[in-house]
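Hey,
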Amino acid sequence: MPDPVADPVPDRCGRRAEGCDLCEAARITPWFHEDDLCWVAECEICATPMVVLRWHERAPSDEVRAALHTRLAAVVAEHFDFEHYVDDNMRNIPDHYHAHGRPVGGFFGHGRRRTGA
C-alpha cells in the first residue's frame, strides 16, 4: 500500500469539488509552502498561516493530518514571530480539510510580525 504522506495517491490529488474555494487554491494571499500533499498560505480572513490538503477530503488519516501539522509548524517557525496552536475547526469551509496556526492566547494574526525569512 502506498504511503499517502510521501507519495499521495494520484486519483486523490486530482479530486476537486466544484465551487470549493480551497480546491481552487487561488493565490490571493502570500504562500509560504507547497508540495504534493498541501499548501500553506496566509488566511484571507484571520491573517494566520493555514495549511490546506491538496485534495478535497474532510477527514484525512491521522498520518496525513500529522504531516500537515508538521508542515504548518515549520512555516510558523520560519515566517512568523509567535508560538502557535493548531486550530482545525473548519468553520467557513467544513468539507475540505485545513488547519490554522493561531497565536497562543489569540485567534487572529492581524498586527502580528512576520520574520524576515
